Amino acid sequence: MPAAAVKSSWADEVELEDGALPPSTEVFKNGLKIFTEYKVDEDQKKSKIVRTYRVEKRLVSKSIALRKAWKKFGESAYDKPGPNPATTIVGEDVYIQFISSKEEDNKPDDDGLDKLKALGDKNVVKCRNCGGDHWTSKCPWKDTVLAKMPDDKKPATGGGPSADGNKMGGSKYVPPSMRDGAAATDGSSMSRRDDNYSAIRIANLSDSTTETDLEELVKPFGPIHKLYLAKDKLTGLCRGFAYIHFKFKNDAAKAIARLNGHGYDHLILSVDWSKPMNNQ
Amino acid sequence: MKPLILQGHERSITQIKYNREGDLLFSASKDNKPNVWYSLNGERLGSFNGHQGAIWCIDVDWTTTKCMTGAGDNTCKIWDCETGKETGNIPTASSVRTCMFSYSANMAVYTTDKAMKQPCEIFIIDVRTIDDSFSRQEPILRIPISGSRVSSILWDNLDESLITGHENGEIIQWDLKTGKKINSIKEHDQLINDMQWNKDCTMFITASKDHTAKLFDAETLMLLKTYKTERPVNSAAISPIAEHVVLGGGQEAMEVTTTSSRAGKFDSRFFHLVFEEEFARVKGHFGPINSVCFHPDGKSYASGGEDGFVRVHSFDSSYFEYNFDY
User: Start and end of every RRM domain (chain A) (predicted)?
Assistant: First the structure.
């Protein structure tokens, strides 16, 4: 009697529960099997259990199809067709954790080392007296007149390094907000995002977008650390937005500038920095 | 990925195996009812009721008509896969530790433990016809083992030789025509819990309590690769489609209660076949993993643990897209 399962209001429900529990129902709806069951648990509380199964058809070889029709036996002899929730449960989502290979870990280090080496050829060591590339104590002009006139030298050579420092982020510390790349963004984005990677949010994607499409879209801007495309649990279709974590902020800024308002798959994308979750 | 958790056993899983097509998954545990499951949706097809002791080993022939189990109740039984009925029963002198159908499934092998003043012994039996006289039938060949007992066994793919793994870490290749040793090596220091073929039976992987899994050439028993971990390895399997191996293990079952589950390292660990380097892990079990195996299509794998659960994992796209950098 499936009509009994359709309740019009909560008042009817109360009346129903005075008596026996409603019978369990099985509804087939667009490829889903919805199994509803009522139970009284140990605390004398009535509970409604709804299980949703997806019914799938697959083409398999003859021998497998034949085995699929075998009758259950042993402990399962009285089980209904389909998985018995007593013996088969779908576990929590687990992720395969990839252990990044050593080479990837080494790369940033190598880069840093290369930079240092490149610098080493120029001027890691700078004399405080004359500005030459030797230690102050080893300055050939230490005891001469030149050493006593650093003011003359400084404007000439001292101006050089500071200008260099701005250009290549070399010997002098430059706060991130003053660096070339960051100049494009305003100071308010100096949040925790800056610590790790630069995340952007792409919205208004069409539902047929896949991860590979997305990757192709954003790859030209620079190396990507992580890419997340929101997908519908059941259908697996895109839910219309995605987050991209770029390795470098410059690339992220470039991507926003280029992609915001870009026509993609008959829709116009809206791209912005990803807002932190606990944004006040 | 969302694994399917199969809770059909009351005690720890000892061995799991897929059939040739991979649609069925057979599981044996220390309770006395081996189970068979549909691997796709985790539905239980049935259980083979009749044993009275812990089941140590299970195997299925290539046509998925016969299933073979060996148990601690001193019997080795043959079952009909379709009906779950016991068709053959061989009483033995001590508990049956390993069993396996030959490639053609004309023959089968089982080994008994060294216990109750009985020696460890290898029995080769004819399983072409299973009728009432089956239990009285003389084995084709009996090989008594004087040394360390057999803890794992493999047939070669021509039904001509056997490879046994022993409690002391030895691996011996036997000629079936003469029943003599062809070759023996000792690359492991401790018990070899499991041995599994690669897809074309040219190499096999061993899993040993000495914290390593090793890859050997099947013909010459030459050591090819070593996969090192810091826990005993209970089982190892080779992917049929990728150059990956999966190792299952964890600390010994008897030590589990004294440490937290996080410290136990009960993950399935994926190693690259060639570079011997670990590249991924999958968590989930509450105890050591006793048996792992790949689905024959390589798109999913199952693990059975000391916690009594079998978990069937279907890989998601990140696994197939993963490229090992070298």
Answer: 198-276
